[in-house]
Amino acid sequence: MAGPDQTRTVITGVGVVSPIGIGRDAFWSGLMSGTSGIDYLSAFSTNNLPSCVGAEVKNFDPTLYLRDRKFLKVMSRDVQLGVSSANLAMQDGDLNLGDIDPDRLGVVYGAGRMTTSPEEIADAVAEIVDDVQNDEMMLTRWGEESSGRIAPLWLLRQLPNMPACHISIDHDARGPNNTITSRESSALLALAEAVRVIERGAADAMIVGACGSNISPIDITKLSLYEGLSHRKDNPEKACRPFDFDRDGTVVGEGAASFIVERYEHAVARGAEIYAEVIGFGSGCDGAGYNNGAGGRGIGRSIEGAMLRANITADQIGHINAHGKSTQRDDLVEARAYHRTFGDHIAKIPVVALKSYFGNFDAGSGAVELAGTLLSLHNGQLPATLNYEYPDPRCRLNVTYGQAVPLIGRTALSVNRTSVGQSAATLLRAL
After folding, report:
1. CB of 305 closer than 8 Å to CB of 425
2. How many other C-beta atoms can be found within 10 angstroms of the C-beta atom of residue 11?
3. Is 9-115+158-429 a CATH 1.20.140.10 domain?
4. Terminus-to-terminus CA distance in the chain, angstroms?
């Protein structure tokens, strides 16, 4: 907990664009009703793809949330989702342009891979094909002729720092600005950096979050090679099954969530509604990459760091919002990390895995899960984990399922981890 001289930081705004709802209330309603956002993909044909299911954000019109529709031409789908969620967070936090000194408002945002479509560079590639029948590539032509066929602003759609740039421009945030690219752990790492910025007195408030979209034939093909996508086709809603014995892989998705992080005194002075206080955070890495030989020790170090900063013990943690990726390997590594960190007490801590609702979408999934943690603390309810039908005896976690349950405590632990072992954990407490 914060000492007498430690700056307290709180979260006062939540904006969500997700497959189960756009906006805070719609998203929470989706969680409480147990609505799955996973279905057969509709954005393109999946006939020749290794997976045909995913979680799409449907009925999303970015022009309803962006400052100017002309920016769409330099925004990938990821950026559109992220900027829209940031605007929703500012609205939820009851902050208008100029309410905060621009030099005291900053941005730290998480982003992942932003995949280009083949159509965007098709003309350029056509220029370097010398023999159409043999598809012989004349690479020397790329700099001479071909690259000129690419739209001048094409690169702006793919740069991971663009969400933070657009958000800072939209809200005249001239304070500290940074982008975190650490895949699923990005949102929690961004939150930790924002807290440090406020603690050192460089800002009064920060816009934090992350976005991601892997609803693309290229991403699905690529991810199927090393991420372990589910091959279930009979019932898409059942495809993502965190910690379930019958899990066979994760599911692609898309979405974003953003948050307003403020110095406690600043939030109180303007009469802001407070969702929770950030009381601890930590990070670590397994050091064993895809082999997972370290058994999730990065998760353990992250949690221990967060608990040390918060000065709390395991019996004070009300629930864990787990990474719950739904692959055999990742869920087992995560579960073992919890057992190693908490010992027998892990059996008493409720665990929820929200990817069962909306799949995995790089940096954005961690942010949307964090939104779930905040709204759980705010509303005093813990959503059920979907598709938890056959508990994996190797995991032995107290997974919530069936229906939402009342929260036991006021403190929650949110955890995320990448395939190569980069882990992050955040402790939040409802006030």
Report:
1. yes
2. 27
3. no
4. 12
Whether residue 400 contacts residue 384, with contact meaning beta carbons closer than 8 Å, is answered with: yes
What is the residue extent of each domain of the chain?
9-115+158-429, 118-154
DSSP letter, residue 371? H
- Spatial contact of 82 and 65, defined as CB atoms under 8 Å apart: no
Residues whose CB falls within 8 Å of the CB of residue 99, separated by 6 or more in sequence, listed in order? 270
Q: How far is CA 193 from CA 85, 123, 141, 188, 428, in A?
A: 19, 41, 44, 9, 15
Q: How far apart are CA 258 and CA 415, in angstroms?
A: 17
Whole-angstrom distance, CA of residue 48 vs CA of residue 13:
42
Residue 7 is which amino acid?
T
The structure's pTM equals 0.93
Token pair in block for residue 113: 């891979």
Q: Judging by DSSP bridges, how do beta strands 105-110 and 177-180 pair with one another?
A: parallel
**pLDDT of the chain, 431 residues: tens digit per residue:** 445 567 999 999 999 999 999 999 999 999 999 999 999 999 999 999 999 999 999 999 999 998 888 888 889 999 999 999 999 999 999 999 999 999 999 999 999 888 777 667 666 666 666 555 555 556 666 665 666 667 767 778 889 999 999 999 999 999 999 999 999 999 999 999 999 999 999 999 999 999 999 999 989 998 988 888 999 989 999 999 999 999 999 999 999 999 999 999 999 999 999 999 999 999 999 876 555 555 789 999 999 999 999 999 999 999 999 999 999 999 999 999 999 999 999 999 999 999 999 999 999 999 999 999 999 999 999 999 999 999 999 999 999 999 999 998 999 999 999 988 899 999 999 99
| Beta carbons within 10 angstroms of residue 70's beta carbon | 8
* Sign, Cα dihedral of 249, 252, 255, 256: positive
> If DSSP codes are grouped into helix, strand and coil, which group holds residue 14?
strand
In angstroms, rounded to a whole number, what is the distance separating the alpha carbons of residues 317 and 280?
A: 12
Structure tokens at 257: 């969530």
